[in-house]
Design a protein that fits this description.
29% of the residues lie in helices and 23% in strands. The chain has 219 residues and is an alpha/beta fold. The longest helix is centred in the C-terminal third of the chain and has 15 residues, at 203-217.
């Protein structure tokens, strides 16, 4: 088996995507900004996640590039408000889609005395014809805990990203995360021996990801 590689890029995600070759990765697995939770005050979710989750995302432009660079599948974690737009963007480009969900076993208790807890997050799975898929007849609802990563306010857990990698990336495959953040997708890729390309426009997150992935790779 070929040794897995890691390439981390500090830059604008859309610009970097446009420089990558067509069908150059096996899967895009990413968690773009939801642009839905930063509020200074006055709302039910009155806390600030800073740059990690506040940037607007051009869904049509990113969907176009995700479909172009992936030879297999795409996983996009998104807000409730973004879900339909991502789904339609992939369907209009000829991909089959499924709704995936993360059922959090330890959700934030915020507003729990007034509302049901916010315990679900959605992911759009989009698949090209003939794409690799190893989780035969499995359901796409993943139950497990929230993660904590020092230096990033909204990390996805490694176990969750491993689910997508094991399902949709062959053993010698390449994973792309153009919104890398703390590097969780890269950590999961390294854990499973897949190659990884990660992009983020925030240099501190690139360095955080580099450190976390190096720990897994033993250096």
């Amino acid at each position: 088996m070929a040794e897995s590689t890691v390439r981390l890029i500090h830059g604008d995600a859309l610009c970097v995507l446009r420089e990558l070759g067509e069908s150059s990765v096996d899967a895009v697995i990413t968690d773009p900004p939801y642009n839905a939770i930063n509020r200074a005050s006055g709302g039910l979710r009155s806390f600030d996640k800073g740059v990690a989750d506040s940037a607007p995302v051009d869904i049509e432009s990113f969907a176009e590039e995700f479909v172009r660079v992936s030879r297999g599948s795409v996983y996009v974690w998104c807000s409730d408000e973004q879900y339909t737009a991502w789904t339609l963007a992939f369907k209009s480009r000829g991909l089959t889609t499924r709704k995936c969900a993360w059922w959090k076993t330890n959700p934030s208790p915020m507003n729990g005395t007034r509302l049901w807890l916010s315990a679900l997050e959605l992911c759009v799975f989009a698949r090209k014809p003939g794409a690799y898929f190893a989780k035969h007849c499995a359901h796409p609802v993943w139950k497990g805990p929230v993660a904590r990563v020092k230096g990033h306010p909204t990390p996805k857990p490694v176990w969750l990203m491993r689910e997508a990698i094991l399902a949709s990336v062959p053993e010698t495959g390449v994973v792309l995360d153009p919104f890398m953040g703390s590097g969780t997708t890269g950590v999961a890729s390294a854990t499973e021996g897949r190659s990884f390309i990660g992009v983020d426009q925030e240099l501190p997150y690139v360095e955080l990801a580099r450190h976390r992935i190096a720990e897994i790779r033993g250096g």
